[in-house]
Amino acid sequence: MVREMEELYYELFEAAGQGRRVGEEIAAGQGQTQSRWQTMWTIEASTALTVPQIARRLGMSRQNEQRIVTELVDEGLAELVANPDHKTSPLVRLTAKGARVLDAINAAADDSHQAIIASFPPARVEQLRQLLRDLTAATSQAHGTTAPG
């Protein structure tokens, strides 16, 4: 059974690596990196998040996420706004320019996703998603951690 888990993680790491390579290529079309794209996507997908909250959602260190957010702010893609619940931890939101860049990256990603998904019936995609959720839950339970979400 240990060997099966090793092989499963090998496949997951290989798939994740390929996804990162494609993601870098897609994001580069708008002068961004995949990390910055993920940050912008997370900001846009949420109502209002602080840098530590973004970092937790992405499984990144707060310091690394702060660096990315600072770069986005410096380039006019994001802005920091007052947080009524925490004086020293502002909320992050995309600017109009950031939203346009994110929309362009997402459109390119949609084209890529359409090309990939053509090889998989929807039922297989949902089955894989459920298996990954089950793996995440089992891993969290076995190690007493909380799954992100």
Plain-language structure description:
The protein is mostly helical. It has two domains: 24-118, Arc Repressor Mutant, subunit A, CATH 1.10.10; 119-149. It has six helices and three strands, in the order H-H-E-H-H-E-E-H-H. It has a three-stranded antiparallel beta sheet with strand order 1-3-2. Helix 2 (34-45) crosses helix 4, helix 2 packs across helix 5 (96-117) and helix 3 crosses helix 4 (62-74). The radius of gyration is 18 Å and the shape is globular. The mean pLDDT is 93.
- C-alpha termini separation: 28 Å
Shape: globular
The biggest beta sheet reads: 3 strands, antiparallel
Overall mean pLDDT stands at 93
Number of domains: 2
| Total number of strands | 3
Q: How would you spell out the order of helices and strands?
A: HHEHHEEHH
**What is the number of helical segments per DSSP (H or I, 4+ residues)?**
6
- The proportion of residues forming helix, as a percent range, comes to 55-70%
For this structure, what is the CATH homologous superfamily of the largest domain?
Winged helix-like DNA-binding domain superfamily/Winged helix DNA-binding domain
